[in-house]
Design goal:
By secondary structure, this protein is of the alpha+beta class. It has one domain. 15% of the residues lie in helices and 59% in strands. It has one helix and four strands, in the order ββββα. It has a four-stranded antiparallel beta sheet. Strand 3 and strand 4 form a beta hairpin.
Length: 66
């Protein structure tokens, strides 16, 4: 199953693919990025999304201790 996030800015939507990630802090979650144009002047923007499981840093510490 692919994970995705849909970002809506001023009514325009952008779909981003999310990749599983273990962050350097030990937390786990997902990360995604992309580029999109918005508005009448079509300025380009870079978009980044972090989705972090709350409390996952403590879970990863316990796994390493075992």
């Amino acid at each position: 199953m692919k994970n995705k996030a849909t970002i809506s800015i001023n009514g325009e939507e952008v779909d981003l693919q999310l990749t599983s990630k273990e962050f350097s802090t030990g937390s786990v979650g997902f990360y995604g990025q992309g580029k999109a144009s918005f508005g009448d002047d079509d300025k380009r923007y870079q978009i980044s999304v972090l989705v972090v499981e709350i409390g996952s840093k403590n879970k990863s510490k316990k796994k390493k201790a075992d």
